[in-house]
Write a structure and sequence with these properties.
Layout: H1 5-18
Length: about 20
Amino acid sequence: MKETLEEVERCIVELDLKE
């Protein structure tokens, strides 16, 4: 995985906020 855990977490948080 090139993305760092922090970046992945941000993506997850953004998805949660969108829902």
